[in-house]
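User: I want to check something. If I give you two sequences, will you return the structure for each one separately, not as a complex?

Assistant: Yes, each is folded on its own. Here is the first sequence with its structure:
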Amino acid sequence: MTQHDGDALPLLDNSVLERLHMELDHDEGVWKVFIRDFVAHLPFRLERVRLALTTGDTVAAKDAVLSLKTSSQMVGAERLAGLALDLEGALRFDSKEGDPSVVLPRIATAHLTAIRQCAEQTSYLLNRHLLQFPGRV
């Protein structure tokens, strides 16, 4: 994936959400808790990415972006996962070009606005999805 390839993906993969609902519904709405936890922890995950990038901490940045990507994939947040993958690629290749305290903030500038906007849209849609299934939890 190249930068902005993540933009071409759908915000949510409904098949992942349906699978979560089907597989976890027998557990009294655990699927809703799973989605709510993702939404609740998303600002923290974004802040971890931002902080690691802006302070030039390559190891923490790679860990934070992996957490964001993996958790996004687990709830079907395809576009957010794709943008995280783009950022992961930038960390892998662009961070080799010089001093991390200079390069990583530059990577942050190139990626974080799109990631933050996508995270807001994703949170909104996931919350709407939860409202479609009122009742438990």
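And separately, the second sequence with its own structure:
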Amino acid sequence: MYESEITKFIRDLKTARPHLEEEQRKGRAIWWDKKPLDMKELREQAAAKVPQQPYPYATK
């Protein structure tokens, strides 16, 4: 049965580092798995925004 080099590499990597999948889950939780947005807080943040000047270094 054919097995690509990438498949072999990943299998060997997981064998060498058995904790790798747990680290991947932790990383995903940090960057991707977010709690639902609170609409009240979102509206408050939008209302608190200060308009920015087109060029922030202008002296006018």
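Because they were folded independently, the notes below concern the second chain alone. The chain is about 55% helix and 0% strand. The first helix runs from residue 5 to 16.
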